[in-house]
C-alpha cells in the first residue's frame, strides 16, 4: 500500500466494516437543484470567441487575483462546520434483518421521513465544530484554531471521526483545479474551462440583491471526470456570486455515485466578495447498480465574523494551538448560542440515538470491529493494545516463515507517553527477535519529546536511502510474502537508539538521534559483508552515530496530537522536505569509523486537473568518507512482487552502492483520462499509470578496496533508468482494488553483483489499493 493512500484505506475500510456489520445499507436519489431547470437545448459554438459567455469569463479571470480575501493584508473569520451521515430508504423488511436484533428498538424509532419524498432516513453520524481562522497573504500563512467540537455516532473512534471530517476540503472556485477525494476536477472558473466545458448563458437573476448572469456549464466529454452545473456572475463586478455543481452520472470514482457542491458568496462592500456557505454532499455506494443501497454524507460550512487588516504578526500565525480536550467539549447551551445553522430533526435524533446505544453490547462489538480495522490494534482493558495485526506474518529466505506479535500502551488518542514492544520468530533460522521503545512528550504545542529503545532483529537494509532511525520501523522487504528473487541479503542488527525532537514552528520538526549498533550478515554463506579495517579482516561492524534531521511538511494535518499522531493525507498535495546530517563517531562504544553523511529528500504530489495526479520525489546524498558496505548508500531496490513507491522495481538488493548519489522517481496516475476515450474499454472503468525511475552515483576506490565480501560493489556512473506503465482500478462494481504494473529496465542489462545474480529486464508487480 502506498503511503499517500492511508486515508483512503482507513476510511474505505471503516465504511466497508460498518456496512458488513449491518449499519450501512440503502440508496438515495436526492433531486439536485441543478437538474430542476430543464434547458431545451444547449448551443455549441465552433469558436469560443463566438460564445457570449467567453467575454464574461474573461472578465472573471481578470478579477480572480484581486478578489475576496486577497484584497487584504490579513484576515480573520469564524467557521461553523456540520457533517452528517444518513442511511435512506429504510423499509419494514430492512428493519427486520437479523443483524439488527438487539438494536432495532433504539435505531429504528429515529427513522426520519421528513426530508426526502417521504422515504425513511436513518441518521447515523454527526459531528459539529467551530473554528477560528487567521491568515496573511504576503507571504501566505494561515492558522486555524479549534474552538469547539461535538461528535456522535463514531465518537469512540476519533480516528474515524477525523477521517470523515478530512474527506472534505474548502473549495476556492477561482483555483484552476478542484480537489475532491484527491481527484482533480477542472473548475468551471478555470482559464482552461472552455477546453473542458460547453458554456451557455441561460438567464439573469438576482443573488443577494446583486443582478447576475446565470451560466450553465456541461462537460464536453461525458465519460471524463468532470462537473456540470451553473455559475452566477455579478453583472457589474464580474465576481462569482453562487455556484451549483455536481459530477456527471458516468464518473469513474470508486464508492462514490455522486458529488454535489453549492457555494454562496457575499459582498460586504463594493470590492470584497467573500465565501459565506459551502454545502457538499457525497453519495457513497458499495456497488453501482441501479437501486443499490447507499449512504449520504453531507457537509455544511458557514463562514462569518470576517475582520480584515488587523495587523496579524508572523509569530502568531506560525504557532500551533492544540487545545486540551476539556476546552473544546461544550455543553448544549453553547451550541444553541453559537451554531449558525440549526439542526434538523433527524440530526438532533443522532445525538439521542447514540446516547441510548452507548451501553448496548452489540453496538460496542460493532465499534470494536471498526476500530481494529482502522488501527490494526486490539484493545484490552483500560490501557493495553495488541498488534499491529497487519504485521503478524511474513517470509524471507533467512527466517523462512516469520510470525510477529506486539503490544503498546494506549490510554487514549492524546497520550503523552507510550511504551511499545514486539517479538518475532523465524521458523527457518529458529531464532527469536525482539524490540521495544518508550517515549514521552512534554507538551502538545511544540511537541518536545524524548525516547529510546533497543532491538535485536534480522533486517533487509539498503531498501531506503533517507531512513528513519526509530527502533520500531521495519522495511517492507524484511517481511514481504511474495518475492521475485532470493531474499538472502539480510543483516543481523543489534541497535540502541535515543532521541529527542521538537517542533519550534508548525509542521517543522528538528530531531536528534544518538544510535549505537552492531551489524553482521544474517547468514555469511549467502550474504557476506566482510571488510578490511586497518588491514584486519572484520565480519561485523560497530557503529555509533549522531544524526540531526530537519523535517518540513507544510500543510500536513493530523487527527490527534498525542505522542503518536495519525496523519491525514486526504486531499493532500503537501510537499515533504527532509535534510539529514549524520556524524559517525569512531571509538565511542567501540565504533569503527569516523564519517560524515549529508542527505536531502523532496517529495511532492501534484494534481494536474483532469489529467490526474503526479507523484514526484528527488533525493540526493553524499558520504564524505570511505565506508564499508554496511554503512554505504545503497540505491533502493524491490525484489518483492508488491507495489512500493520510491524504489527501483528491477534492481536487485545491493546492486548499486554509492558514496554520492541522486535519484528521481516519477509516477503519474491519469485517472482513466486515456481509457475513457476508447470504446468498450471505457466500460471497464480501468485507470492508467505511467512511471519513470532513474538513479546515478559514484563510488570512490577506497570504498571498493575496503570490501571483502562476496559482492562486486559498483555505482551507476551513467544514469540507471527503468520505466513502465500500470493498470489500476481492476475489479468489479465499486470493488476495484487491484493494480498491476509492467516494468522495463532501460540499461545495465548485463550488470551482475555476483556470479549467480540474474538481472531482470522485465517484471510484473501487483498490489491492492483502496482508492476512490
UniProtKB/TrEMBL annotation:
GO terms for molecular function: carboxypeptidase activity. Keywords: Carboxypeptidase, Hydrolase, Protease. InterPro entries: DUF5686. It holds the Pfam family DUF5686. This is Carboxypeptidase-like regulatory domain-containing protein.
Amino acid at each position: 500500500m502506498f503511503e499517500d493512500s492511508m486515508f483512503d484505506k482507513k476510511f474505505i475500510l471503516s465504511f466497508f466494516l460498518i456496512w458488513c456489520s449491518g449499519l450501512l445499507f440503502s440508496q438515495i436519489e436526492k433531486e439536485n437543484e441543478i437538474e430542476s431547470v430543464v434547458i431545451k437545448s444547449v448551443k455549441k459554438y465552433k469558436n469560443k470567441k463566438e460564445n457570449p459567455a467567453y467575454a464574461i469569463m474573461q472578465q472573471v479571470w481578470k478579477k480572480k487575483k484581486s478578489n475576496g480575501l486577497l484584497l487584504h493584508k490579513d484576515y480573520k473569520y469564524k467557521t461553523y462546520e456540520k457533517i452528517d451521515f444518513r442511511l435512506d430508504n429504510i423499509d419494514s423488511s430492512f428493519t427486520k434483518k437479523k443483524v439488527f436484533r438487539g438494536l432495532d428498538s433504539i435505531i429504528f424509532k429515529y427513522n426520519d421521513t421528513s426530508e426526502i419524498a417521504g422515504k425513511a432516513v436513518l441518521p447515523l453520524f454527526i459531528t459539529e465544530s467551530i473554528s477560528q481562522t487567521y491568515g496573511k497573504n504576503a507571504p501566505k500563512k494561515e492558522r486555524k484554531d479549534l474552538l469547539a467540537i461535538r461528535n456522535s455516532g463514531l465518537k469512540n473512534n476519533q480516528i474515524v471521526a477525523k477521517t470523515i471530517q478530512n474527506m472534505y476540503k474548502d473549495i476556492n472556485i477561482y483555483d484552476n483545479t478542484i480537489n475532491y477525494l484527491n481527484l482533480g476536477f477542472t473548475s468551471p472558473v478555470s482559464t482552461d474551462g472552455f477546453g473542458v466545458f460547453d458554456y451557455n448563458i441561460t438567464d439573469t437573476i438576482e443573488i443577494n440583491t446583486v443582478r447576475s448572469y446565470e451560466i450553465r456549464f456541461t462537460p464536453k466529454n461525458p465519460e471524463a471526470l468532470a462537473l456540470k452545473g451553473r455559475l452566477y456572475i455579478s453583472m457589474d463586478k464580474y465576481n462569482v456570486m453562487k455556484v451549483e455543481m455536481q459530477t456527471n452520472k458516468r464518473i469513474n470514482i470508486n464508492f462514490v455515485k455522486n458529488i454535489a457542491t453549492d457555494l454562496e458568496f457575499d459582498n460586504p462592500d463594493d470590492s470584497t466578495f467573500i465565501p459565506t456557505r459551502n454545502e457538499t454532499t457525497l453519495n457513497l455506494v458499495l456497488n453501482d447498480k441501479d437501486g443499490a443501497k447507499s449512504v449520504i454524507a453531507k457537509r455544511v460550512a458557514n463562514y462569518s465574523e470576517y475582520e480584515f487588516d488587523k495587523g496579524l504578526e508572523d509569530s502568531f500565525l506560525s504557532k500551533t494551538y492544540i487545545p486540551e480536550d476539556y476546552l473544546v467539549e461544550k455543553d448544549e447551551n453553547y451550541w444553541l448560542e453559537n451554531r449558525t445553522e440549526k439542526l434538523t430533526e433527524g440530526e438532533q435524533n443522532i445525538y439521542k440515538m447514540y446516547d441510548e446505544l452507548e451501553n448496548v453490547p452489540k453496538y460496542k462489538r460493532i465499534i470494536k470491529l471498526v476500530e481494529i480495522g482502522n488501527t490494526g490494534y486490539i484493545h484490552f482493558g483500560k490501557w493495553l493494545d495488541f498488534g499491529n495485526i497487519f504485521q503478524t506474518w511474513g517470509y524471507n529466505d533467512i527466517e523462512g516463515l516469520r510470525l510477529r506479535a506486539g503490544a503498546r500502551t494506549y490510554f487514549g488518542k492524546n497520550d503523552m507517553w507510550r511504551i511499545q514492544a514486539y517479538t518475532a520468530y523465524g521458523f527457518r533460522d529458529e531464532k527469536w527477535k525482539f524490540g521495544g521503545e518508550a517515549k514521552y512528550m512534554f507538551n502538545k504545542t511544540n511537541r518536545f519529546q524524548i525516547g529510546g529503545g533497543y532491538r535485536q532483529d534480522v533486517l533487509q537494509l539498503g531498501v531506503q536511502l533517507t531512513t528513519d532511525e526509530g527502533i520500531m520501523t521495519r522495511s517492507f522487504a524484511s517481511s514481504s510474502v511474495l518475492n521475485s528473487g532470493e531474499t538472502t541479503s539480510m543483516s543481523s542488527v543489534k541497535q540502541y537508539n535515543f532521541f529527542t525532537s521538537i517542533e519550534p514552528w508548525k509542521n517543522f520538526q528538528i530531531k536528534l538521534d544518538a544510535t549505537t549498533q552492531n551489524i553482521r550478515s544474517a547468514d555469511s554463506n549467502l550474504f557476506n559483508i566482510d571488510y578490511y579495517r586497518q588491514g584486519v579482516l572484520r565480519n561485523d561492524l560497530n557503529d555509533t552515530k549522531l544524526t540531526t534531521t530537519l523535517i518540513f511538511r507544510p500543510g500536513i494535518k493530523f487527527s490527534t496530537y498525542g505522542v503518536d499522531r495519525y496523519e491525514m493525507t486526504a486531499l493532500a498535495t503537501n510537499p515533504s522536505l527532509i535534510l539529514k546530517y549524520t556524524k559517525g563517531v569512531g571509538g565511542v562504544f567501540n565504533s569503527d569509523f569516523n564519517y560524515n553523511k549529508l542527505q536531502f529528500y523532496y517529495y511532492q504530489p501534484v494534481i494536474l486537473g483532469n489529467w490526474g495526479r503526479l507523484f514526484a520525489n528527488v533525493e540526493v546524498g553524499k558520504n564524505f568518507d570511505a565506508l564499508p558496505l554496511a554503512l554505504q548508500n545503497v540505491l533502493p531496490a524491490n525484489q518483492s512482487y508488491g507495489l512500493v513507491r520510491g524504489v527501483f522495481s528491477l534492481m536487485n538488493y545491493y546492486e548499486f552502492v554509492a558514496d554520492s548519489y541522486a535519484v528521481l522517481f516519477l509516477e503519474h496516475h491519469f485517472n482513466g483520462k486515456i481509457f475513457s476515450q476508447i470504446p468498450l474499454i471505457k466500460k471497464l472503468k480501468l485507470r492508467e499509470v505511467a512511471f519513470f525511475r532513474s538513479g546515478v552515483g559514484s563510488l570512490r576506490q577506497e570504498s571498493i578496496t575496503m570490501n571483502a565480501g562476496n559482492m562486486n560493489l559498483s555505482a551507476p556512473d551513467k544514469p540507471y533508468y527503468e520505466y513502465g506503465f500500470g493498470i489500476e482500478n481492476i475489479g468489479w462494481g465499486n470493488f476495484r482494488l487491484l493494480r498491476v504494473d509492467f516494468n522495463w529496465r532501460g540499461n545495465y542489462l548485463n550488470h551482475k553483483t555476483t556470479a549467480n545474480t540474474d538481472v531482470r529486464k522485465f517484471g510484473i508487480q501487483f498490489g491492492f489499493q483502496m482508492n476512490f
